[in-house]
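Practice set, problem 2.
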Amino acid sequence: MCGIAGILGSGRIVRRPILEKIANSLEHRGPDNEGVETISVDQSQDRILGLVHRRLSIIDLSEAAHQPMHDPETGNWIVFNGEIYNYREIREVLVGDGHRFKTNSDTEVILTAYAKWGEGCLSKLRGMFAFALWCAREKKLFLAIDRVGIKPLYFCKGESGTFVFSSEVRALLHSGVVKREIEPLAIDSFLSYGAIQAPLTMIKGVYSLRPAHYLTYSQRSGDIDVTQYWTPKVGTLGGADSNSHRHAREYFESVLKEAVRHHLVSDVPLGIFLSGGIDSSALAILVSQLGGGNGLESFTVTFPESSYSEGKYSRLVADKFSADHHEIELSESDLQGILPQALEAMDQPTVDGINVYILSKAVHEKGFKAVLSGQGSDELFGGYNTFRRIPLLKRFVRCTQTCLGNNQRSGLADWLSRLLQHSTFGSKLFQCMGSNGHLLDLYLISRQLFNPHTKNHLIDTEESILRNGTLGETADWLVSEIKGLDTFSGISLLEMRCYLANMLLRDGDMMSMAHGLEIRVPFLDHKLIECVFSMPSDTKLHNRLPKPLLVHSVIDQMPKEIYQRSKMGFTFPWEIWLRNQLRYQVDDLLHETPDSNQMGLNMEECRKLWKRFLYNKSGMTWSRAWALYILLFWVRRNIST
């Protein structure tokens, strides 16, 4: 796991001091080694490619795996961030074709695989990745990220055909190519969901490469082409009696174990995040079944506020499946001591991520470089209430469409939305009533942070080109992605493409890598995703049992207390803390931010909403209050005002 960056431009721009400055900004992502290279790609036009790599050594710890890595046969170069879990299998195929390897690294496997299969090499890779490869023959940059966006990659095309990319947005600010200028649409997107929806980023002109996409930048023409290379489709399971539930579950369990087994490939010890919920508990059990539990150390965060703490549940699992269990008790005063560093680590504003920062810090301090996580299970196995709520909303919209004309329905929805503007449920319900009832719109409304009425008071959205906080081209892409899928699979894919990719995975990456820690997510293995999408629909939901596919696979060893209790989610007691000691720093920032600001925020309205939260008024949740603070803090810290 690493940090990567690069600049392709003139020798005046691509200079070693600039590359070293970028490398320094990424040091936290790769404390083990640094690599900086400058390559002349067109002497006649004075075009230089500068590549930067910061290394966190997980596979092949030797110096031979140093990056940037060069292929002397093709002249190609690569900088790579991630892990390819099936690199040994791919390597065997390439060796059989006559290729020779100098290292035992997965990086060299990608470099050689590209030489053989070109862009088709992506279909061979099983893992999490973001890499940039210079193709010397075609004089082009080839950038790619994994199928679900576990590892982010950002890019910008500047003046005179200069092209820059990096693992982090803020690293690009050191390139001399990217200006510290806010993207107005990103403010709208952030207020809509508490995280900016790709391909937008907080910085104008900087874009995020969407999951399952690759980008080519031609040195000759200056053209950028972005292409999708994978999407999960519903298929049929193999075997003669593939329609039987028993056969389907047996096949699923074999793929599940195979996915977890691949994620145990490592040349360093692995830990595990253990929350006490179904996902991490199931993962700990599966690792134990595969013989990887010996020596596995587990980590969980607990709180003095017992209603938020899952310590007793994580101990139930840790006592059976962990060699050593670590509880990190966090109080409000503890958080205040850590919060400045956590906020500093935030590459883009987000209402989430502080929890991952603190847990990653504890794991890192115990000497671990890599840890397993149950993230992605809710999206894949139907753990969120969106899987039950959205089908109900679809029926509700269909009913109103039948009973009321379009004008009546739209007018009633608008009136009721204004009447219930401070009611979270009421506002979303009547937005749905006024919508076209498409699955995407119902999903986006369901995931909404600030409703349109409130957002209109916070910023000027009259000329916004966004559709529910999302770019129109992105909305069109999402519509095409879910076309032909059943409702469960459609919601699952939307959760992966939106909430998971744009918040959870992005936050997990930046907050764990702030401590040089790699997070592995076996439930997001693409073959497992394809398997679940092909499972019979009625195996994925159960009236009483949550995430039945996953739970049934480990139910003999999972304590009943884990799967019979209500879902909690891993969140801090923000509701309490923001009204206590944290209140004063939020107050200060709200009053210090000038009414005239680069964000275009109506500060008077922000202060009114903050007071609504403090007095526990309807509809003003902690996440909305925290979102305003995070946005103001990030801009003050990263953009000159």
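Problem 2, part (b): a different protein.
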Amino acid sequence: MTPIDRLKALTPDLVDYDKTKLIGDVGSGAAVAFLSIPQGVAYAMIAGLPPKVGLYAAMIPSIIGALTRSSRHVVAGPTNAVSLLVGGAVATLAAQNGAEPVVVAATLALMVGVMQVAAGALRLGAIIDYIGAPVVLGYITGAGVLIAVGQLPNLTGTAGGSGNLLEKLSVWGQGLTQVNPLALVLGIGAAAAVVLIRKIDRRIPTAVLVMTLGIVLEFIFDFHSRGVQVLADIARVPSSLPPFSIPSVAGLDTLLPLAAATTVLSLVESSAVGRSLAARTGDRVDANREFIGQGLANVAAAFSGGYVVSGSPSRSSMCWRAGGKTRLAGVIGGLMVIVMVWVGGPILDHTPVPVLGGLLVIVAYDVIDIPRIKVTLKTTPGDAVAYIVTLIGCFSLPLDRAIYLGVGVSLVFFLRRASILVSSELAIDETGRLREVEVGDDEAPVERAPKLRIIHLEGALFFGSAGELRRILDAQVADPEVEVVILRMKRTGGMDISCATVLADAAELMRSRGMTLLVVGVKPTVYAKLERANAMERIGPENIFETQVTWFGAMDAAIERAMEITGFQCKAMHNYLAWRSSHQPLERP
């Protein structure tokens, strides 16, 4: 494959690029850029960083992410969930180490980017499937509540606190005697304006419109002179290009746990956005390439004055809904943000902080998905527990630990489900066919062959299911009437040393009691594992039957072997062999 062919394979959306695609990309890029300005400023506030850092994070990272990931619509940039995670921890670490929050944020972005690129290079894309949706939902819900609570001081013009949810509410409540009525009116007015405009037409860019209106009103009425904070009071927005910055390498060990949690959250969020849009567009999303693209976007953020970025749900959705045709829509959006900040940076300094607070309260409300929460709570107990534990962790623990807690709970329930080994007994009905009955069911409406038990297994054969496999086999050993046990493993997956040892131990125990274990439906890979685990000799090669090209071919051979061992052919066996001989063996598809 030539370099040109390889490039076409990586960017199929750019093949046959024409005027129609260009028009769609320019319009979509402009819509994304207009949405990126208020979100970049607002999310930087959530992260406890100067507004310029949020704007820088929406520039170069958006361009790099669009060019390198597989999805043509996912837009990289700051997001509320990641910003909240970064904010709490960066503030704490900056206070402990005496470092500048901006430097800490850039270093964190570099670490996250390197981890994400490494995950993609190692093809760990499937790892996201093991992070349960209830965990992500619990974190997003908790983040929404914390974002709203964090904006209460901005809405009332009073002091805000730090710490967990109750500590923040306590500090805010103590300052309510000094509420700035004008700030409260501006904040509530901004939130109400968003709700009203959405009812008129949800396609209107409400955040841009409300933020612009706030700036205009500030110029007219000079709210700042009346005690209302503006962005310039926090940090000025420079009218300049993104700077080239070098992240610090100091304190990497301190940042490592936070970087790992942020890596997971960013990848989960980005992958969810990519898959959601792909389901609507029919595109194919390569999880490993998404990891690499997201990682490169974070590396770019680290060296261009930004902080950790993720796949933005709102801007990515806007990119698609506004008619974006190719990945150049994200590139154009990033370039437009650069131009808009370069030209109008000082104007953003006059944005009233209560207006941004009102916008963020709406953002917090939007991320709390009540219907999904109801479904999660009533689907399974495991899903409900994972959601509730993660949510409580968000309110009482540092957010990176809350994510670890939720992931831990999710993995516990996953291992529990994965370790479930389902067994059933196969017996012969009056026609001679094998039928499934519950193990130990003495009232089964089918005929059991004396001295023979046929056990069918389904599930994963690994260390987590070894105990259940042992219990299933022990139940057969305890039956004094049984001489031969046929264990059908056609629908099992995997085989590790733990389960191979259980099979070998059971075979030897049965042999010592005059019984025989026959293992049926062994796949070639499992056969090789039994050999490597020295279980083959202990069970007996003559007692192991590999899968065959015909249906029940291995079972036929095993039943004939059972007849040789028991020395007689009972009615059930006769019926089975008669039925099998009257039907032509069918090859497996």
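Answer key, part (b): The two ends are 34 Å apart (CA to CA). The first strand starts at residue 76 and ends at 77.
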